[in-house]
Design brief:
Oligomer: single chain
Number of helices: 35
Largest sheet: 5 strands, antiparallel
Low-confidence stretches: none
Family: Belongs to the VPS16 family.
Structural class: alpha+beta
GO cellular component, one term: CORVET complex
Strand order of the largest sheet: 1-2-29-28-27
Distance between the termini: 132 Å
Subcellular location: Late endosome membrane; Lysosome membrane
Organism: Clunio marinus
Number of strands: 29
Shape: elongated
Strand content: 15-25%
InterPro entries: VPS16 (IPR016534), Vps16_C (IPR006925), Vps16_C_sf (IPR038132), Vps16_N (IPR006926)
Length: about 850
């Protein structure tokens, strides 16, 4: 089928190789910019364009004026300019992150951003500085951007990543009286390689190898020197042009020749760039060559096409085409994607072409629409998919709409059609069209967008300060807006001066920072970096995450606010972090004053000191006049070493008094007196008393028979009479001193009664002695002690006298185990007598 639609700028290079030239922008450079006298250095992927006066022309005319570097968007909008005030400028180039690399003759590489702001610099080494650089290349490695320089001694130095510059020297080519004519950098097996030509010789030098490899190509035409080398964007293809205008095209390893082509021109081309296949990024079937006023496009089968231009023509290689820049136009030369050719090509009978025509006839309300549909009804799904794919390759919005409408028309005839592809392409086209707008000036193709990823594209928009568009694209593609909003916040901090207005804008914009993925701490860090400390502190007060807030508050010397935030969070690790920072950075007195206002922090610090620094803890107690804590701490220390206790007890007692703990103070004083007595006792009896309690000390004296001294110590230290009597009874009983026990019981009225006497007698199996003291107990207690002594008869008589039938029953149960029938009968009679009366 033949369709003449949107193919006015198509041309063929042999059968099946159709190319097209797409106008991206009409340009209007400032009056002082004439590309005929300029050098142009453009970044790939629709990146910025650096333009400066031709350095060679400046050298020839002997001009001493410093060049100005202008940076434009692809649509000709001026982004910035750099008034060059450094060394002799050799060449420029762009990195993969859109940094402008400026290489000087002394081997110094200066880096600027797209707004002309200086970033940093590095050197290609001392030898390059000493011998000077005559040429330089900026090339893409697999993960970064590299720099290669050739010195006046024809030695090549490379840096594979300008962000981490490590200079390496490549192997030297054989010495000769002839100079190299051309050279190019190529990535081979992930290693940097250089191809160098000298007359008809070709040398390959590779990173990490010590030898230079001689290469060769076969040409049917005569030539003397290979004057120009061009490597494709994907490093898979090489083109060489000789002094006689013969073009050799082949693989990058030089083993496969695609074709030879006679340009018919003896002057060297200004540029040669491979046009990569849009359908297959590994293929390249055409080379674009620029001469003054001419653009020559040569296919690998030997066919060619020529376009006439203004004198100034510059080529910009892309991953799926070549951009052409002139004073008035910015264009893209590209191989027509197969899906597009299937629809708009001449004499095409593909399903997608019929579907497109069917929709066009349907729009005209023609019955022919049905006829076209009938031809492709069994392949309607293929046709729909190809129309959708073709739309993604188009720059003209009307063509995009026509193709998508055709696809929408066709998918209505597919049962259960999955619309995901259609929806995604619609989303991508909206993004691409927005980026291609003249005020944005980023003419990405569909493949380039897919290669860069939307995240990288958003980053580039944000860096250009197109925040509104970036947020709309992020929403459209369901991507996070946080990075965009953060960069917007950074920009406000950098360039707005009213802190109050900035805070108000942030509060209004970031009403729910957590859900937006925004951290006020990150914004505050930026404010601190640019010297806006007060603004940073205010921003930190808005930060809900204390673990992010506190460290930066400490960095800003807002120690009290940091401690307050940490204590309010209740996070002990966070509190300890603040305390340790304060402890190191603050004088001790000030530190202690600060933590006094924060009880939780102070208690945690005390706990820390208790485990790690007892002296510091004691200082805190002394500063706070916490006498009770001082006393307890001194006591704890003294107990760890009993020898120190004697000397510490006076201080401990005094601190207890000051802390209004009279009982503890008195106990401390009593213990001091006891220890004093114990020293005397050790000298007197030559046995250990030191460290014994008051109870054990008096007991030892009673065992030794020194009752008088025991009573003296008892009175001095105010042991209670009850305690002393218990001790005296227990010692007499354990020594079987029953007569002394009886004397003691009669010495004065017992403060503890006579039951302890009974107990000690029973323990010594002295029933007779026990009876003496049982009779002196209360009647209700006598029954219990008679039972414990096994005197059931006496117990029963007393219970009967007391009319205590419950006790009688208990006695009966206990007596039943004795097999004493007489006793049992007597108890039963008592019980019967009392029961009868009831």
């Amino acid at each position: 089928m033949s369709l003449l639609y949107n193919i006015g700028d198509w041309f063929t290079l042999g059968h099946g190789n159709t190319y097209r030239k797409i106008e991206l922008y009409q340009l209007e450079f400032p009056e002082n910019i004439n590309l005929e006298h300029m050098n142009v250095f453009a970044a790939p992927y629709g990146g910025p364009i650096a333009i400066t006066k031709n350095m060679k022309q400046l050298t020839k005319t002997g001009s001493s004026s410093k060049p100005i570097i202008y940076i434009f968007t692809c649509s000709g909008h001026l982004l910035s300019s750099i008034n060059w005030n450094s060394g002799a400028l050799l060449t420029l180039g762009w990195s993969d992150s859109e940094d402008l690399l400026c290489i000087q003759e002394d081997g110094v590489v200066l880096i600027y951003n797209i707004f002309g702001q200086y970033q940093h610099k590095f050197s290609m080494g001392q030898e390059a500085a000493d011998t000077k650089v005559i040429d330089a290349k900026i090339f893409a490695t697999y993960q970064a951007t590299g720099v290669a320089v050739m010195t006046t001694h024809f030695r090549i130095f490379i840096v594979n990543n300008y962000k981490d510059p490590k200079v390496r020297l490549l192997p030297e080519i054989p010495k000769s009286s002839l100079d190299p004519a051309s050279w190019a950098v190529i990535m081979e097996d992930r290693r940097t390689t250089c191809l160098i030509t000298r007359e008809q010789e070709i040398f390959k030098v590779k990173q990490d190898e010590n030898i230079c490899t001689a290469m060769g190509i076969s040409l049917d035409f005569d030539y003397k020197t290979i004057r120009f080398i061009s490597v494709s964007f994907n490093n898979r293809h090489v083109a060489m042009c000789t002094n006689t205008g013969i073009l050799w095209m082949g693989s990058s390893d030089l083993r496969t020749k695609y074709c030879e082509f006679n340009t018919g021109r003896t002057e060297m081309p200004k540029q040669m760039e491979w046009c990569i296949d849009a359908d297959d990024p590994l293929k390249a079937e055409a080379l674009v060559m620029s001469y003054p006023s001419i653009l020559l496009i040569v296919g690998i089968n030997g066919d060619s096409n020529i376009y006439t231009y203004d004198p100034a023509v510059f080529l910009i290689p892309e991953m799926d085409g070549v951009r052409v820049l002139t004073n008035g136009y910015h264009e893209l030369v590209q191989k027509v994607p197969k899906c597009v050719s299937n629809i708009f090509g001449i004499s095409i009978s593909e399903p997608s072409s019929f579907l497109f025509e069917s929709h066009r006839k349907f729009s005209e309300r023609s019955h022919q629409s049905d006829e076209y549909l009938c031809l492709i009804f069994d392949k309607i799904d293929v046709a729909v998919s190809e129309c959708i794919e073709a739309a993604s390759f188009e720059f003209d919005t009307e063509t995009q709409k026509s193709l998508m409408r055709a696809a929408q028309f066709g998918k209505g005839f597919i049962k259960g059609h999955n619309p995901d592809e259609y929806i995604q392409v619609c989303r991508n086209l909206r993004v691409l069209n927005a980026l291609r707008e003249k005020d944005i000036g980023i003419p990405l193709t569909y493949y380039q967008l897919r290669h860069l990823t939307p995240t990288v594209v958003l980053d580039r928009l944000v860096f250009r300060k197109h925040y509104g568009l970036a947020i709309q694209i992020a929403k459209h593609l369901n991507l996070s807006e946080s990075r965009i909003l953060l960069h917007w916040a950074y920009h406000k901090i950098m360039f707005e001066k009213n802190d109050l207005e900035i805070i108000q804008k942030f509060v209004q914009k970031f009403k729910d920072p957590t859900s937006l993925g925004i951290s006020f701490c990150a914004i505050a860090k930026k404010a601190e970096e640019v010297g806006k400390t007060d603004l940073a502190i205010q921003l930190l007060e808005l930060e809900p995450n204390c673990s992010l807030q506190v460290p930066l508050l400490l960095k800003l010397n807002e120690n009290k606010k940091a401690l307050l935030a940490a204590t309010q969070s209740g996070d002990t690790n966070l509190i300890y972090m603040v305390l340790m920072h304060l402890k190191v950075s603050t004088p001790l007195s000030k530190f202690q004053m600060i933590i006094r206002d924060f009880p939780l922090a102070q208690n945690l610090y005390k706990k820390y000191c208790q485990l790690n620094n007892v002296k510091a803890l004691k200082d805190i107690y002394m500063q706070e006049d916490d006498f009770l804590a001082q006393a307890e701490m001194s006591l704890e220390e003294a107990l760890d070493s009993y020898i120190k206790l004697d000397s510490s007890l006076i201080e401990i007692s005094n601190n207890f008094k000051k802390g209004h703990k009279d009982v503890e103070a008195e106990l401390s004083e009593d213990h001091r007196k006891l220890m004093k007595q114990q020293k005397v006792l050790e000298e007197k009896y030559a046995r250990a008393f030191y460290g014994l309690s008051l109870h054990d000390t008096i007991r030892e004296l009673l065992v030794l028979g020194d009752v008088k001294l025991a009573e003296k110590i008892k009175n001095d230290i105010k042991m209670s009479d009850k305690h002393f009597w218990y001790l005296r009874i227990e010692v007499l009983g354990s020594n079987y001193q029953w007569d002394e026990l009886e004397k003691f019981s009669k010495s004065k009225k017992s403060p503890i009664g006579f039951e302890p006497f009974v107990e000690v007698c029973l323990k010594g199996r002295q029933l007779t002695e026990a009876k003496k003291y049982i009779n002196k107990c209360r009647d209700d207690r006598k029954i219990i002690w008679y039972n414990r002594a096994g005197l059931y008869e006496e117990s029963a008589k007393l219970a009967f006298e007391l009319r205590d039938i419950d006790s009688l029953r208990n006695i009966h149960n206990a007596a039943s185990t004795t097999n004493n029938r007489e006793l049992i009968t007597k108890i039963e009679n008592f019980i019967a007598a009392m029961s009868g009366k009831k």
